[in-house]
Amino acid sequence: MTILLLLLASGETYLTREQALKLVFPNGETVVERVVDLDEPTRARVAERYGAQVSPRQTVWAGLRDGKVSGFAFILTETTKSLPATFIVGINRRGEVTEVAVMSHEDHIGTDCRREDFVSQFDGKTNADRIRVGAGKGLLHVSGATLSCHSIARAVRKALAIVQHHFLDRPESLRALEQDEPVRQKRYVMGTFCTITAYGDPQAVEAAFEEIRRLDKVLSNYDEKSELSRLHRERSIEASADLLAFVVESRKYSERTRGAFDVTVAPLVSLWGFKEGKFRVPADDEIAAALKRVGPGRVTAEGKRVVLAEGTELDPGAIGKGMALDRAAAILRKAGVKRALLDFGSSQAAIGSWEVAVRDPFEGGKVLGSVSLRDESLSTSGSYEKFFKANGTTYGHILDPRTGRPVQGVAGVSVVAPTATESDAMSTATFVRQELPEGLDALLVTGAGEQRPSEGWRKRFKKGGN
Ligand code: AMP
Ligand code: MG
Fold first, then answer.
1. Ligand 1: does its nearest atom lie under 6 Å from the Cβ of 322?
2. Which end of the chain has fewer CB atoms < 10 Å from its terminal CB, N or C?
3. Which atom of ligand 1 is nearest to the CA of 250?
4. Of 298, 443, 291, 446, which Cα lies nearest the Cα of 380?
């Protein structure tokens, strides 16, 4: 019995939400998701057209082109024979149906309603049209799928009525959608610019920047008053949760990358002049001496106590911004923000779906293309960020902790990961290892300009840009 029920209820999914929205908005419009409240008269009109009560709150997707609404999409669920089916209905700004598609159909009977010759009958219909299925009623049904065809017609009537009565009859609600611009703020934090674009409360964006500043007060290796500077002076301290997390996370990535990522590179970073911008090529014995103070095991955390071995210092440069982005994103999420992009230039954290530019490692201002992120992060490590030339050789700021020298032969690495901490640490480590990381989508660009994408990267990457 259970097996039979499962079989009957197994159903089919034809389109994900993303695919369905792409059908309605194929031209790269900005798509905003909104919950609208239908007032009482509107609700009554929609209910009349639909043939049943409707909920006062409705989710609608609107496509925006040049700040103007170009169309609407509704994702609506109706019962077919006895189980639910979900449809997407696309309607343009003139109130005409542009798209009807079945996203999922739980009943195993009636799935033929998705046939193109049936759904295409809705094209161009408006709220003024009679939208009924049956002999002499205008719309021909698919035999064997009668109930499902009726369900689609109900969904279309409901969507058309909402568009007509809530939006087209009331230009102010259209304008409300059009004026729904994201908040965008750019601030100088952690020694560089950070831009946050968020659909939501400006206060939440402020709080996110505040969080980044707060973490900078812990992790800065330029600020004498930071907790990290205190650790460098006192060598052994009871650390805050944030400093502890930095040490623990860093050690985790050192292990994962066999020491390619190593926050204890600080003495080498200073030796080559990358910390103060006073670049020079040190002598071999200087490098050997600095290397003695470097190694992931030279910083330890036990309980809350963090201890540095003699001469060791920590450089947060390869992971700090990623950590800060994750913290700031958590603040936005907590404030209810469903869509935001936090951009540090070298790392981006996406809340919701975003298309993010990938920098050209040979020209910082140019882009190679873009990758799609959904609740993920992208980090790019490049020698173009900080480098100097001496005797015909270019020395970049990413150091190989095994040799004590700047990595040669790589122009840039981009890595996508679930968190910005991970993408930041792993892009730096991949730059050192010159081997694509396991389990993450990544691109390595060699010094000769050869692009080596992973399989997953290829799928999410779109070439071109400026
Ligand atoms: P990123 O731009 O995230 O790749 O970080 C590069 C920065 O991290 C450099 O400017 C240094 O401050 C620091 N760094 C350099 N080499 C390493 C390394 N092998 N492991 C960890 N941090 C490094
Ligand atoms: Mg990094």
1. no
2. N
3. 21
4. 443
